[in-house]
């Protein structure tokens, strides 16, 4: 009787220890190079980004890493998503890769170090579930990536023992690599990356337009499924899944966890559980964004009536939010202090809540730094930068972000809302459980701003007409 191996998998004992197996599996494979799948213009955009970064750090070596996916459970990891600063500077999204920018000729030379894929003949081909081609499929190698990006690309092992004196390392560089290269993290480098990423170039703006356009069609896809979500009892999660499938089909995936909140879930700012029903007479808050293959994301919110028609109370809340939204957007223009749009929208919200007798103080008292009572119903901010991250450059210093003036090329959101929780006894019963948010993505231009998400209506009548058409399957 043939002896049975103690374990039938690839790890215990490793199949690599069985010469007959390793010899056989190394043979008979075709060799067809796989090319990197890059969005057109990626390499040129990354080269320009490195040039701008180089100008900030003359004579200093810079190190950025893509990062690795965190463990989800046991030996299974979450889907990998590369560090945004690394992607901005490299154009690459390979897990575990590192970019080193070395001073040369008044600028910097860039070398990208990547984990080389395990090919037939390598033990990892069949035993490494993260990089073995038998597990994850064929992938581009060092030469293919070098040709695609126009920079030197080397296998990750070449980083071992590399001497980097006085280098600046980004936050994305892990502790092991920091120690091996004798580096320390550089807050100055991370700050520079945030500052540079706040103003988008033409290529980046094109990627954001594509993300937003795909998001607009995703909203339509979701609305067409509302009757099914209600009629078959599939609920919020069916709509969340509808958008996520759309995002995976027309981009890399959703840019953040899709929010679908019906009725009493709509006031919950980040309702990503999406485990409730879609109530036919309730307002439905949809906060969704497609991330492109280049990783730039949209971030758009609309609150729609699941029935196609707002109730009187829903309409009143929506109208107040719309007035705040328009006031905020009117302050998005070059040369304007960043926070002006926030204060303009808050003034409208505070006045409206006062008119409804929901504030225990005057409007001026509420808006004062020592008041802020209106924020009970709007605890979040009114917008943020948008780009490779949905809350782009959120780790920037206050004076770079909140304290700066807007300039052409900035892309940002405006998103006021009102959130009356179902258990909030400070509001009339008829308002409890109503949550409304309007969010658009705006590009600051030379003389004003362009609403990139303008294809979606923002007024209540326009939303009702849009919703009714889609609910009817048109």
Automatic annotation (TrEMBL):
Sample GO molecular function, one term: manganese ion binding
UniProt domain Aminopeptidase P N-terminal: residue ranges: 44-182
Cofactor: Mn(2+)
Catalyzed reactions per annotation: Release of any N-terminal amino acid, including proline, that is linked to proline, even from a dipeptide or tripeptide
Keyword match Hydrolase: yes
Domain of life: Bacteria
GO process terms (BP): proteolysis
UniProt keyword Disulfide bond present: no
SUPFAM superfamilies reported in the protein's UniProt record: Creatinase/aminopeptidase (SSF55920), Creatinase/prolidase N-terminal domain (SSF53092)
GO cellular component: cytosol
PANTHER family the UniProt entry points to: XAA-PRO AMINOPEPTIDASE 3
Protein family according to the UniProt entry: Belongs to the peptidase M24B family.
Protein's UniProt name: Xaa-Pro aminopeptidase
């Amino acid at each position: 009787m043939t002896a049975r191996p103690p374990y039938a998998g690839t790890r215990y004992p490793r199949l690599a220890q069985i010469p007959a197996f390793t010899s056989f599996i190394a043979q008979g494979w075709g060799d067809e190079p796989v090319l990197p799948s890059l969005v057109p213009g990626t390499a040129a955009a990354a080269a320009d980004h490195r040039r701008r970064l180089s100008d900030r750090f003359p004579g200093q070596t810079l190190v950025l890493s893509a990062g690795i996916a965190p463990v989800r459970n046991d030996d299974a990891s979450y889907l990998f998503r590369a560090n945004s600063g690394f992607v901005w500077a490299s154009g690459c999204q390979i897990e575990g890769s590192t970019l080193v920018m070395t001073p040369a000729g008044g600028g910097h030379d860039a070398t990208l170090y990547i984990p080389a894929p395990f090919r037939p003949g390598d033990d990892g081909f069949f035993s490494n579930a993260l990089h073995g081609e038998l597990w994850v499929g064929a992938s581009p190698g060092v030469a293919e990536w070098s040709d695609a990006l126009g920079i030197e690309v080397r296998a990750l092992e070449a980083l071992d023992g590399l001497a980097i004196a006085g280098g600046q390392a980004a936050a994305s560089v892990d502790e092991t690599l920091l120690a091996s290269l004798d580096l320390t993290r550089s807050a100055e480098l991370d700050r520079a990356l945030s500052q540079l990423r706040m103003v988008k170039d033409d290529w980046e703006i094109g990627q954001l337009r594509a993300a937003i356009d795909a998001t607009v069609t995703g909203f339509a896809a979701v609305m067409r499924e509302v009757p099914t979500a209600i009629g078959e009892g599939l609920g919020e999660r069916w709509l969340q899944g509808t958008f996520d499938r759309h995002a995976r089909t027309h981009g890399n995936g959703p840019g953040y966890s899709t929010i679908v909140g019906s009725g009493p879930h709509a006031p919950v700012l980040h309702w990503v559980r999406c485990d409730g029903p879609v109530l036919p007479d309730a307002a439905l808050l949809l906060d969704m964004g497609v991330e492109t293959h280049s990783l730039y994301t949209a971030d758009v919110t609309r609150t729609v009536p699941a029935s196609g028609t707002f109730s009187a109370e829903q309409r009143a809340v929506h109208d107040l939010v719309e007035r705040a939204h328009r006031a905020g957007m009117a302050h998005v223009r070059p040369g304007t202090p960043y926070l002006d749009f926030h204060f303009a929208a808050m003034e409208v919200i505070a006045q409206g809540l006062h008119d409804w007798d929901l504030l225990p103080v005057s409007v001026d008292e509420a808006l004062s730094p020592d008041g802020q009572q209106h924020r009970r119903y709007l605890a979040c901010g009114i917008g943020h930068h948008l780009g490779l991250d949905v809350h782009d450059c959120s780790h920037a210093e206050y004076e770079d972000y909140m304290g700066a003036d807007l300039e052409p090329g900035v892309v940002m959101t405006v998103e006021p809302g009102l959130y009356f929780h179902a258990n909030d006894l400070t509001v009339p019963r008829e308002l409890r459980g109503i949550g409304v948010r309007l969010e658009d993505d705006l590009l600051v231009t030379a003389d004003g701003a362009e609403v990139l998400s303008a294809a979606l209506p923002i007024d209540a009548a326009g939303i009702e007409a849009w919703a009714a058409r889609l609910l009817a399957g048109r």
